[in-house]
Design brief:
binds magnesium ion; five-stranded antiparallel β-sheet; three-stranded antiparallel β-sheet; 5 helices; about 30% helix; alpha+beta
């Protein structure tokens, strides 16, 4: 990805992208409500697709060459790109990351969340392993908001990765550090789900793209409770940790415009999660 081909969006285009962002958010919200022990990841895929279609869009994951599903569902040591399957039945205490995207008209949304599968009655599983999984998800989600807050104040795009890395490496669990995946990164978003520029989740030497109004990006930290080395499974898609450690993935699509930032895939535009940083997102209308 080169920095020469970044397409800056007009306010009108960002408003159109918001529709795709909200359809993406609705799909993830419907999946979150459906997650329970005994459901298959293929059933979750159908729920996401029906939600996006009901919002007047279609799955942009299906536009990725060779991919036939609406979501990626990555369970436990799987980090990203897990393929939904009728055979993959969720169990109480599993940590599952769901990634989804909607395209409406010409414009795209892309967002991911991690959920810890509760007990049948909705209560959290009471075990050390599951508590650690919840903390891993919380730390990863917070690193996403640290990255979004950095974007709001940054002069150059790679300040986002510096902030995410600083936060993740300041956290530890039972004395052990978390790892950040480096082979997979965030990206620009607009007419395609994946556009320039690359958005790193870790510090790099270059300053990166000079931030300007109209920049729309997906920030998506992928964090593991162990070593960050990964392998791709035989299905050709699923990325899992080599050491079997658990993984989490959180993502939002964000627009930068003249008056501030707007988290397009958060229903409240990012207001609640950005408030502790002293940042107020500015919706366009
Ligand atoms: Mg995604
Ligand atoms: Mg993405």
């Amino acid at each position: 990805m080169s920095r020469n081909s970044v397409e800056l969006k007009t306010n009108e285009q960002i408003i159109l992208m918001r529709e795709a962002g909200l359809a993406t958010a609705a799909a993830l919200s419907a999946v979150r409500k459906a997650i329970r022990p005994g459901i298959s990841t293929l059933e979750l895929d159908a729920i996401a697709e029906a939600t996006i279609i009901a919002k007047g869009g279609h799955s942009n994951f299906k536009l990725v060459h060779g991919y036939a599903h609406t979501i990626c569902s990555s369970v436990n040591d799987e980090v990203v790109h897990g393929i939904p399957s009728a055979a993959r039945i969720l169990k109480a205490g599993d940590i599952v990351s769901i990634d989804a995207g909607a395209e409406i008209g010409e414009w795209n949304g892309d967002s991911a969340m991690t959920v810890i599968v509760p007990n049948e009655d909705g209560t959290p599983v009471d075990s050390d392993i599951v508590r650690k999984r919840q903390i891993l998800s919380d730390v990863t989600e917070q690193s996403l908001w640290v990255g979004i807050a950095a974007l709001a104040k940054a002069e150059y795009l790679n300040e986002v990765g510096v902030a995410i890395e600083e936060y993740i490496y300041s956290q530890e669990i039972n004395g052990a550090k978390y790892g950040i995946l480096e082979e997979y990164v965030g990206h620009g978003i607009g007419r395609s789900m994946h556009e320039d520029p690359a958005v790193y989740n870790y510090a790099v030497r270059e300053k990166g793209f000079k931030i300007k109004p109209g920049l729309c990006v997906a920030i998506e930290p992928m964090v593991v409770a162990g070593n960050q080395r990964t392998k791709v499974l035989k299905d050709g898609w699923t990325v899992s940790t080599k050491d079997g450690s658990d993984a989490s993935h959180w993502e939002h699509s964000i627009a930068v415009h003249e008056k501030g930032i707007w988290v397009l895939t958060a229903v409240d535009g990012g207001a609640e999660k950005l408030a502790p940083f002293g940042i107020k997102p500015v919706p366009l209308s």
